[in-house]
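#lab-general

N.A. 3:47 PM
ok so I finally got the sequence cleaned up, no stray characters, all 103 residues accounted for. can someone with queue access submit it? mine expired

B.Y. 3:52 PM
send it over

N.A. 3:53 PM
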Amino acid sequence: MNDLTSDNLKEVVSQNDKVMVQYGATWCGNCRMVKPKFKKLAASTDGVEFVYVDAEKFPESRQMAEVTNLPAFAYFEGGELKSQVIGTKFEKVEAMLDATSGD
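B.Y. 4:20 PM
back already:
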């Protein structure tokens, strides 16, 4: 899993066929709570690039999924936003990944 260090999610998405993103912020307790689960999912999933985006620092990256609430999770495939989940129900994130990357 990579933490985005500049506002370049568009570049990451264009360079990888499948990308799963967690949008969070340093002030967001729920974001910090689910980040270890996101890291664990990243470690156990092949063929998908996992990225953490600080939505406060990187507005262009945030806009790619039109994120209005945190935490938010987005799945991009072939350069396009395919699915997203808002909130801390991590089962929904896992289900989204299973549904979209299960080819």
